[in-house]
Design brief:
The chain is of the alpha/beta class and about 280 residues long. It is about 35% helix and about 25% strand. A hairpin with a 2-residue loop joins strand 5 and strand 6 (about 95). The protein has ten helices and 13 strands. It has helices at about 15-25, 45, 70-75, 105-110, 150-160, 180-185, 200-215, 230-240, 250-260, 265-285; strands spanning about 1-5, 30-35, 55-60, 60-65, 90, 95, 115-120, 125-130, 135-140, 165-170, 190-195, 220-225, 245-250. The mean pLDDT is about 95. It folds into two domains: about 1-60 and about 125-285, P-loop containing nucleotide triphosphate hydrolases (Rossmann fold); about 60-120, Alpha-Beta Plaits (2-Layer Sandwich), CATH 3.30.70.20. A nine-stranded mixed sheet has the order 3-8-9-2-10-1-11-12-13, sandwiched between helices. It is elongated, with a radius of gyration of 22 Å.
């Protein structure tokens, strides 16, 4: 069973919910592996108290252009403006490519394959850690200036598949881009976290279009209850059959983060989370 925790926007509490959900399954006696699929900015390890990790694999999911033969580039009369990212530069009879600016689109290679080459580069690493609760966490980190985050998500999920488990809890990247889509294709169920704000409601509708396009079953968790009563009423009315629970907007959540603990360790918040997750289990049956 793979449960993907997603949201239409960042900052709604998605990683916190994913971390609590993984811990909930672990406490229920399930063999769990947590998988942080937000490879641009992973932070499940912060919530789960990870102090050490090992680099399990270096990934090469990206390509960069390089100058293969300057003489042939001159004969091609390649205009540096063909690179819309400004990575290709010419100084007299000399050419150079700035790897940090190169997006690997291959436009320069298509214009002059004799003078330009494409090579695979290391763009991310997979990390494996044991959480302070005892279950494993697999996460990946893109290197600065690198891309192909969708392919890196494929790699991290495939890696996590090799860890013995019954349930995989995946923390997807915020938004509706390639990293989310790469996560959704593995999902048996999607838990959407939403905050009761104008932007939160708008982005919920956006991410729902993607989830429904891929025909994934979903449920909704309303976080930060108490911010906007009007929007909260709208969400309860429209998604009454999909709403699994509500988490209050409380100072204790921030206190937990400052202490490096999960909200589950607060008696009041634990009751809210457990009620929501028990209803989620009903959805999964």
């Amino acid at each position: 069973m793979k449960v993907v925790v997603a949201s239409g926007k960042g900052g709604v509490g998605k990683s916190m919910v994913a971390s609590c959900l993984a811990t909930f399954f672990h406490e229920a006696g399930k063999k769990v592996v947590a998988c942080d699929c937000d490879v641009d900015a992973p932070n499940m390890h912060v919530w789960l108290g990870v102090k050490r990790f090992r680099v399990a694999k270096i990934l090469k999911c990206s390509k960069k252009a390089f100058v293969k033969d300057e003489a042939k580039l001159l004969r091609c009369k390649l205009d540096p403006k063909v690179c819309k990212f400004g990575a290709l530069k010419r100084k007299g009879a000399s050419f150079e490519i700035d790897e940090l600016l190169c997006e690997g689109c291959g436009a320069c290679y298509m214009m002059c394959s004799d003078g330009i080459g494409m090579r695979t580069v290391e763009n991310a690493e997979i990390r494996l850690a044991k959480t302070r609760f005892g279950f494993p966490l697999a996460f990946a980190q893109l290197y600065p200036g690198e891309k192909s985050s969708g392919r890196v998500v494929d790699e991290i999920v495939s890696f996590a598949e090799g860890i013995e488990h019954e349930t995989m809890v995946m923390d997807a990247a915020a938004g509706i881009g390639c990293p989310l889509i790469s996560s959704l294709k593995f999902a048996d169920h999607v838990l959407l976290v939403v905050e009761p704000t104008v932007s939160g409601l708008s982005d919920l509708h956006r991410v729902l279009r993607v989830v429904k396009h891929f025909q994934r079953e979903y449920s909704i968790l309303l976080n930060k209850v108490g911010l906007n009563a009007c929007i909260e009423r709208k969400l309860r009315k429209k998604f009454s059959r999909k709403l699994v629970g509500e988490i209050p907007y409380a100072r204790e959540v921030f206190a937990c983060l400052n202490r490096g603990t999960l909200p589950l360790e607060s008696a009041k918040l634990r009751k809210c989370f457990h009620g929501a997750f028990e209803r989620l289990v009903d959805f999964l049956r």
